[in-house]
Design brief:
The chain is α+β, with helices and mostly antiparallel strands and 129 residues long. Helices cover 59% and strands 13% of the residues. The chain is globular.
């Protein structure tokens, strides 16, 4: 089992480790890497958690200081755009994400975690119970 864990870490990215002391950012980055690799090997039609993938992607990119457009958030969901948009609407309705207009381009909106979801992500990814 330990060998499998090490292989998954290698898949997720060189130098990425997840253990009891890992930061929530490291855990999220590793999860995203594993999920992307899994989808590349097995196919993306077998597993589906678009809302979770969107939240993970927003969390990781927020830690990097990268703003995420609604289009990018939809791509992170790994599902057709109309399905991803439904997930964005639900996440917004549930108070987990918010959107703000791009001041430079009125056609674009940026998606971000709310305080509530940011705290939730830290709680889940830190392994707290």
């Amino acid at each position: 089992m330990l060998d499998m864990a090490n292989r998954l870490r290698a898949i997720a990215g060189a130098g990425t480790t997840v253990n009891a002391g890992s930061s929530p950012y490291d855990v999220a980055t590793t999860l995203l890497g594993i999920r992307r690799h899994r989808d590349a090997v097995i196919g993306s039609g077998y597993f589906g958690e678009p809302s979770w993938d969107i939240l993970l992607d927003l969390f990781v990119n927020e830690q990097k200081g990268r703003p995420i457009s609604a289009t990018s958030a939809c791509l992170a969901g790994g599902v057709p755009p109309t399905t991803a948009l439904r997930h964005l609407v639900r996440l917004t309705t549930d108070g987990l994400i918010c959107s703000t207009p791009d001041p430079a381009d009125a056609r674009r909106r940026y998606i971000s975690l709310t305080r509530k979801s940011r705290e939730m992500m830290h709680f889940v990814l830190s392994g707290q119970s």
